[in-house]
Design goal:
Radius of gyration: 32 Å
Number of strands: 22
Strand order of the largest sheet: 6-11-10-7-8-9
Strand content: 5-15%
Structural class: alpha+beta
Shape: globular
C-alpha cells in the first residue's frame, strides 16, 4: 500500500491525525454516502458550520442522485420533517439527533408509533406476499436471529423463540441465532461453506474428528524431494520437519514402499499448519496413497490421506478437547478449500478467492442476498475473468483503456471483459449511457500528452504550450462549454477507445470484504504476497473466535459511514479545506451526542462507529485550537468526556479541556477540571503528571490553601548532567546539531553517548533507543503471553499482536501466564528466557519487536545489567498498560560490567539547548527512580561566551 505524502505541515501538526490516517488506511475510490452526509440538515445546523445562502446546493434533486439511492427510498422524519434515506440505521441515527436536539413536533406530523419508516413501495411488496409465504413454512424452525437488517421485515411465528424473515421480493429466510456461530472454535484456515452446510454447522453439528475420514490433498514442493519415479496407488507416510527454515510446521511425504522412506515432497503449507499440531500435540500419525501422477515432474501430485487412530475425549485434558476439535475442523475446512482452489490457479487468484470464501463463511449475516450472490458468483467465473478483475482492482485506476490491458496469464481479455460486464463486476464506456463529470475527467486523464496536444490543435483558440499534462486537460475542458461537452466526450472516446472500470457495487463490496478479513485498513491483498515471498513471517497463534465483531448489518453500515466521515476529514485537512473540516467535526459531534455507546464497554471498541467519530473529533479539537476557537473546542471536549466514560484518551481530553478553559480566562473552572481528572482511573502516565503540575500551578492561594498530597512526589528533582558541545546550528525550530569529539557532525544523543563512553562520563556502553529497545525486550520475554490462546483477540492470521494489547483486558485475561513469566524474570532467568525466545521466533513479525535494530549480544547485556527486579517491574508496567507507557522512555540506555561479572545500567534523557522534558518523559523518569534505576537528564549546551 502506498504511503500518502505528509508534505502539508498543517496535517502533521494536528494531534490525532496520524492515527486517523492509520485507521482509514487505503482510501476508497468512491464514498457512497458522501453527499448525503454533507447535506444532512442535522449536521449543517451545528454552530460549527455556517452555510451562506447559495453556498451549498442542498436540493432534493441533488440528494436523489446519490449512488444507490432514489427518491422513492427516502422517508419523511416525523420530528423535523426532513427527508431521510430509508435505511434503518440512517433513520435511527437521524431520529436520535432530532430527539436529542429537542425539536418540537408539528400538529400535522405523525407520532413515532404512527409512522412507518419503510418506503411505501417496499411495505406494499412485503405485505402482499408475506401471508402466503408464511403459510408455506413449517413450524419446526430452529433458533432464529433477532437482529434486524435494512431489507427484511420480521413477523412473529407460532413459537415465541422463532421469527420469520420475509425479503422484499416475498421470499422467506430463516436465520440461525449467532450464539452457536463457530461453536467457540479456533478458526485459522478459511473455507467456503454452502448455505445448507452453514446452517448445519451453526446448529452445532460440526465435524470435530478426522479419524477414519479420507482427506484429498496434494504433494507439493517436489523439487525439494528426492528424484524418483512415482506410481499410482503407491502407499505413502508422513513425518514432521520442524527444522525446516521455510516453515516450522512442514510435513514431509515419504514413500512407504519397501521401507525406503524416500522424500517425495511436502504437504501444502495451509494443511500442514493444522496437521502438524495434531501430530505434535496429540501424537497422531497419518498414511495415504498417490491417486494419479501428473506429466510435469514438479507438478502437484493428487493424494489421499487418512488417520486410523481414534482418540477418546476422556483421554484428553479438559482444555485440550476444544483445541483438538478445532484443529480437526480446520483440517476439514482446508481440504474443502483445496477442492475449490486447485493448484492450477494463479497464486494471487487463489489468495483472492480464499479471502472471499473466508468472509462469506464467517460473516454472512452482514451481507444482503444480492451482495452474497454477487460475491459467490465471482467464484464461478472463468479463470480469465477472475484474474482480470483482480488485476484491475489492485491497480490505481479507476478507468483503464482496453487497448492498454494485457496480461500474459489471461488468454482472452475480450471474453473476460464481457463476462465481468454481464455479471456486474465492471462497467465500460460502451455500456454507460452517460459519464458523470468526475468519470469523464478521469477518462480524459488516460490520454497521453501527445494525444492531448493533437486534440488541442483542432481548436482555433490560442492555448499555452505547457508540457504539463494537467495544463493541457484544463485547456481542453475550458475550450468546451457545457453545451459542447458532449462533442468533447465523443472526441475523447474516439481517441481512448473502449474503457472499463470496476463497478461501484463491486468496488464497495470488495473493499468491505478486505476490511472484514484483515480487520483494519492498512492491510490488503499485498499481505498475501509478502507471506508467499517470505518477506514477512507472521507469528503462530490460534484464532479462537466466539463472537462477531459486527453483530448485525446495521452496525457494519454505521461503521462504514463513520469511516467515510474520517476519510473526508483526512482529505479536507490535506487540502486545507477548513469549511469541510468543520462539517466533519459537526457530523461527528452530532453522532457522538446521539448514538449510544453500547459497544464501547467491550474490550475492543475500535469496531464501533462511535469510536471512529471520537477519533475524528480528536483531530477536530486540535484543528479548533489551532484556529483559536476555544469555546467550540471546550464544548467538543466536554461531549467526548461525557459520552466515553471508559476511554484511555480521557487523560489527554481532560488536559486539553483544562488548558482551553485557561485560554478563555476561566481559571477556576480549569482548576476544577484538572482536580476532577486526577480522580479519573483512566487518566494515567504523562497526562496524570501534567494535570498534577497544573493543579499545583493554578491552585496557589487564595484559590486553594490546602497543599495536595502528591506535591512532594511531583516536585522531586531529577538528577541532571551538563555537557558542553560545539554547535553547528542555533536556529529556533530546527533540530540541534553539534560537532562530535571526532569532529563529525552529530545530534545531541550521539554527542551524549560519546561523553558517557569517555573517562569523564564513566566508560559506559550504550545505545540511542528511546522506547524501541524496551519494547523489543518486552515482546521477546512476554512472547508466550502475547500470543496466548485468548478468545476474540486474533481474528486473522495476518496479525502481529492481539487486538487487546492496548487495553486492560490484555493483563486481566492472561494474568496467570504473565505473572509466571515475571516470577522467572524476577529470579534472574531473564537472559535465559531471552535467548530461548530469540532462537525460536527470530524474524517473526511482532508489533513490539524490532529484530534488526539490536543484536542478541546487546539485548543480553541489557537484560543482565538491568537486573531481574527492575526488568520485571518494567514488563509488568507495559503488560498492565501498554498504551499509556509504550512511548516517552529515556533516549539512552547505558550499561557497564564490573570485574566481578556483575553489571549496572543507567537511563538518560538527552535535551538540547531549547528542549524541555515532556510530561510523559517525566512520568517515566520518576517511575524509574521509584524502581531503583539510575536515571538522569543530560543537557547539551553550547559554551558560554564571556
Amino acid at each position: 500500500m502506498k504511503i500518502r505524502s505528509k508534505s502539508n505541515s498543517n496535517r502533521t501538526m494536528l494531534t490525532g491525525h496520524e492515527s486517523l490516517i492509520r485507521l482509514i488506511g487505503k482510501r476508497r475510490r468512491f464514498l457512497p454516502n458522501r453527499q448525503s452526509l454533507l447535506s444532512d440538515p442535522i449536521q449543517l445546523s451545528s454552530s460549527l458550520v455556517k452555510v451562506e445562502n447559495g453556498a451549498e446546493d442542498l436540493s432534493e434533486e441533488r440528494n436523489d442522485n446519490l449512488a444507490g439511492t432514489s427518491g422513492s427510498d427516502k422517508v419523511t422524519c416525523p420530528v423535523c420533517g426532513n427527508k431521510v434515506r430509508g435505511e434503518e440505521y440512517m433513520i435511527n441515527s437521524h431520529l436520535d439527533a432530532c430527539l436529542t436536539r429537542g425539536t418540537k413536533r408539528k400538529l400535522s406530523q405523525q407520532t413515532l408509533l404512527q409512522f412507518n419508516f419503510s418506503p411505501r413501495s417496499k411495505v406494499q411488496a412485503c405485505l402482499t406476499k408475506s401471508d402466503d409465504t408464511k403459510s408455506n413454512l413449517t413450524s419446526d424452525v430452529n433458533e432464529v436471529d433477532t437482529e434486524e437488517t435494512d431489507s427484511i421485515i420480521y413477523e412473529s411465528s407460532s413459537s415465541s423463540d422463532n421469527a420469520l424473515l420475509v425479503n422484499i421480493d416475498g421470499s422467506a429466510e430463516i436465520s440461525v441465532n449467532d450464539d452457536t456461530v463457530n461453536n467457540g472454535g479456533i478458526v485459522n484456515s478459511p473455507s467456503l461453506v454452502s448455505e445448507i452446510e452453514a446452517s448445519e454447522n451453526e446448529s452445532g453439528d460440526l465435524d470435530d474428528d478426522i479419524s477414519g475420514k479420507i482427506l484429498a490433498t496434494f504433494i507439493v514442493g517436489r523439487k525439494f524431494g528426492e528424484e524418483g519415479e512415482l506410481h499410482t496407488e503407491t502407499n505413502i507416510t508422513f513425518c514432521r520437519d520442524p527444522e525446516n527454515t521455510k516453515d516450522p510446521n512442514a510435513i514431509k511425504v515419504l514413500s512407504a514402499e519397501s521401507g525406503c522412506n524416500k522424500v517425495l515432497g511436502y504437504i501444502p503449507r495451509e494443511l500442514a499448519e493444522h496437521l502438524s499440531k495434531l501430530m505434535d500435540t496429540f501424537g497422531l500419525t497419518f498414511e495415504g496413497r498417490i491417486m494419479s501422477v501428473p506429466e510435469h515432474s514438479h507438478a502437484a501430485v493428487p493424494i489421499q490421506i487418512w488417520c486410523q487412530e481414534k482418540i477418546p475425549y476422556s483421554e484428553i485434558e479438559g482444555e485440550k478437547v476444544k483445541l483438538y476439535k478445532s484443529l480437526c475442523q480446520q483440517v476439514l475446512a482446508t481440504v474443502r478449500l483445496s477442492e475449490e482452489s486447485p493448484p492450477g490457479m494463479m497464486k494471487y487468484q487463489q489468495n483472492f478467492c480464499l479471502l472471499l470464501q473466508e468472509v462469506l463463511r464467517t460473516t454472512p449475516h452482514v451481507f444482503t442476498h444480492d451482495e452474497k450472490t454477487l460475491l459467490e458468483n465471482f467464484l464461478l467465473l472463468s479463470n480469465d475473468s477472475q484474474k482480470l478483475f483482480i488485476r484491475l482492482y489492485t491497480r490505481k485506476g479507476p478507468w483503464f483503456r482496453m487497448s492498454n490491458i494485457s496480461y500474459a496469464e489471461i488468454l482472452d481479455h475480450q471474453s473476460a471483459v464481457k463476462e465481468l460486464s454481464a455479471g456486474g463486476y465492471v462497467c465500460s464506456t460502451e455500456t454507460t449511457s452517460e459519464l458523470h463529470k468526475d468519470d469523464f475527467e478521469r477518462v480524459l486523464n488516460l490520454l497521453n500528452v501527445g494525444e492531448l496536444r493533437e486534440m488541442l490543435s483542432l481548436i482555433k483558440k490560442k492555448h499555452s504550450q505547457s508540457p504539463r499534462k494537467q495544463d493541457s486537460i484544463s485547456a481542453l475542458l475550458s475550450s468546451y462549454g457545457d453545451k459542447s461537452r458532449s462533442l468533447l466526450k465523443k472526441m475523447v472516446l474516439e481517441k481512448t477507445g473502449s474503457c472499463i472500470r470496476i463497478s461501484p457495487a463491486a468496488d464497495l463490496l470488495i473493499w468491505r470484504v478486505e476490511r472484514l478479513f484483515f480487520c483494519n485498513g492498512e492491510q490488503d491483498l499485498s499481505a498475501f504476497l509478502l507471506v508467499d515471498l517470505g518477506i514477512v513471517k507472521y507469528p503462530t497463534y490460534n484464532c479462537v473466535i466466539t463472537d462477531h465483531i459486527f453483530s448485525n448489518r446495521n452496525d457494519l453500515l454505521s461503521y462504514e459511514e463513520a469511516l467515510e466521515v474520517a476519510q473526508i476529514m483526512d482529505e479536507s485537512l490535506e487540502e486545507n479545506n477548513s469549511s469541510m473540516v468543520l462539517k466533519c467535526i459537526a457530523i461527528s459531534d452530532s453522532r457522538i451526542s446521539s448514538q449510544t455507546s453500547k459497544n464501547l464497554s467491550s474490550p475492543f471498541p475500535c469496531f464501533s462507529a462511535s469510536w471512529i467519530y471520537s477519533k475524528v473529533a480528536l483531530s477536530g479539537v486540535s484543528f479548533l485550537e489551532s484556529e483559536r476557537r476555544y469555546n467550540d473546542a471546550v464544548n467538543l471536549l466536554k461531549r467526548l468526556l461525557l459520552n466515553f466514560p471508559n476511554d484511555r484518551r480521557r487523560g489527554y481530553w481532560t488536559l486539553r479541556l483544562s488548558t482551553d478553559l485557561e485560554h478563555l480566562g476561566r481559571v477556576n473552572e480549569s482548576l476544577s477540571v484538572a482536580e476532577t481528572g486526577l480522580d479519573d482511573p483512566w487518566v494515567r502516565a504523562g497526562s496524570k503528571v501534567s494535570l498534577q503540575r497544573r493543579v499545583l500551578r493554578l491552585g496557589k492561594p487564595p484559590r486553594r490553601w490546602k497543599v495536595p498530597s502528591f506535591s512532594d512526589s511531583i516536585k522531586r528533582k531529577i538528577p541532571e548532567v551538563h555537557v558542553k558541545g560545539r554547535p553547528l546550528n542555533c536556529k529556533i525550530g530546527t533540530k540541534s546539531r553539534f560537532y562530535g569529539e571526532d569532529g563529525e557532525q552529530c545530534g545531541v544523543e550521539e554527542l551524549a553517548l560519546q561523553y558517557y563512553a569517555g573517562e569523564e562520563g564513566g566508560y559506559w556502553k550504550g545505545v540511542h533507543s528511546e522506547s524501541g529497545i524496551w519494547l523489543t525486550v518486552f515482546g521477546i520475554l512476554m512472547w508466550d503471553a502475547i500470543f496466548a490462546d485468548v478468545a476474540n483477540v486474533f481474528l486473522t492470521r495476518f496479525q502481529t499482536s492481539p487486538l487487546d494489547l492496548e487495553t486492560d483486558y490484555f493483563y486481566e485475561s492472561r494474568k496467570n501466564i504473565i505473572e509466571s513469566l515475571l516470577v522467572k524474570i524476577q529470579q534472574g532467568m531473564g537472559e535465559e528466557m531471552l535467548i530461548t525466545s530469540w532462537e525460536l521466533h527470530f524474524g517473526t513479525a511482532c508489533r513490539c519487536v524490532n529484530w534488526n535494530r539490536h543484536s542478541l549480544t546487546e539485548l543480553r547485556a541489557v537484560v543482565s545489567c538491568i537486573g531481574g527486579g527492575c526488568l520485571a517491574s518494567i514488563c509488568r508496567h507495559l503488560a498492565q498498560d501498554y498504551r499509556s507507557w509504550s512511548s516517552g522512555m529515556p533516549d539512552l540506555l547505558l550499561w557497564r560490567f564490573h570485574f566481578d561479572y556483575s553489571g549496572e545500567a543507567k537511563l538518560v534523557e538527552v535535551k538540547g539547548p531549547r528542549d524541555r522534558v515532556s510530561e510523559q518523559q517525566r512520568a517515566w523518569l520518576l517511575f524509574f527512580m521509584d524502581s531503583g534505576f539510575n536515571a538522569e537528564v543530560c543537557r547539551v549546551n553550547p559554551p558560554v561566551n564571556k
